[in-house]
Structures are given as C-alpha cells and as structure tokens.
Amino acid sequence: LGSKFRRKVGYMPQQQALYDNFTARRFMMYISALKGISTAVAREQTEYLLSEVELHDVMDKAIGGFSGGMKQRVLVAQSLLGSPELVLLDEPTAGLDPKQRVIIRDMIHKTAKDKIVLVSTHIVSDVETIADEIIIMKQGRIAANGTVEQLVSVLPHERRTLENAYMLHFPEKNTAGGAIDENSSV
C-alpha cells in the first residue's frame, strides 16, 4: 500500500512491534517517513504527540528500556502521525496503569471529534467513556450495537453498566472470575 493510503490510516497493533534500539523520537520519525510526512511536519508532530502521551522527557531514550506502558503510549502516538482520517487501535489501554489509561482515553476522545476512531478492546469500562457507538462482537459477528444508553436500557436499573450489557451476550463466561471470551471484543 502506498504512502497516500498510509497517510489516511493510523494503526496501533496489539503486539508491541517496536525497534528496541530506536529512541521514541527516531521511531516516530521513521513511521512519518513511511507515511510520506515531511521532516518539518514530522518533527513538530513527534514533539506534540509524545508530549500528549507524557513521553516528551524520554523521547531520546532507547525504546528497549521502556516499560510496557511506555511502549503502548509510543504506539498510540505513532498511530496519530499525519492526522489520519481513520484511526484503528487494538487494545490501546492494555497494560497501562490507571493514570496512563485516562491519558490515552482522553486522547482517543479528543481525536474522535474530527476523525473516525475504531477501538478493539476487552476493557469495557474504557469504551463506556469514549465511544458514541459501540459494537459488541462475538465470534466474528455483531452481537449488539448502539449507544451506551441503548445497550444498557435492557437491564434492570441497578445493573445498568456496559460491562453487564456486554456479559448478556456471553452468559457462558459470566462467572465470578469475570473471564471474557477470547473471540469477542467491544
């Protein structure tokens, strides 16, 4: 696929496929080059996006020394390079501490104001605060979709949470342990 397509789409994989010997800045510049973003714009966006995910102070350190949460934030930042029209995020808050999750959720919410953002996650509580429209998938098929209000409206008032609405579609997994079907996502 050409750089024109890569400029329109931002993607964050679930697997942290990063170059350990690259610094965060170098990785962002590398992704910018793949997208055909000019060096001047890439520098500006790299500074801004790494600041947004609170990695500005370590952007010149090797990624190999980063924690899993820091690597996750680099991947979220790189997905937004070039201001893509469509952003695909696969488990963007997995492995993040509560503060980092809030930072990423806020960034996703802000990004979604003028872009299409698709988030695949098993962390249902994250979706509740950022999504306008939710699709619950089960084994590759749509099990339910709608707004948070629509999805929870079928529940008794005291049980109206998105997690409970989600679990309606997975009764076999509705155990005290809270296990979730690995073939499902929100």
UniProtKB/TrEMBL annotation:
<feature type="domain" description="ABC transporter">
    <location>
        <begin position="4"/>
        <end position="94"/>
    </location>
</feature>
<dbReference type="InterPro" id="IPR027417">
    <property type="entry name" value="P-loop_NTPase"/>
</dbReference>
<dbReference type="GO" id="GO:0005524">
    <property type="term" value="F:ATP binding"/>
</dbReference>
<comment type="similarity">
    <text>Belongs to the ABC transporter superfamily.</text>
</comment>
<dbReference type="InterPro" id="IPR003439">
    <property type="entry name" value="ABC_transporter-like_ATP-bd"/>
</dbReference>
<protein>
    <submittedName>
        <fullName>ABC-type multidrug transport system, ATPase component</fullName>
    </submittedName>
</protein>
<keyword id="KW-0813">Transport</keyword>
<dbReference type="GO" id="GO:0016887">
    <property type="term" value="F:ATP hydrolysis activity"/>
</dbReference>
<dbReference type="InterPro" id="IPR017871">
    <property type="entry name" value="ABC_transporter-like_CS"/>
</dbReference>
<dbReference type="Pfam" id="PF00005">
    <property type="entry name" value="ABC_tran"/>
</dbReference>
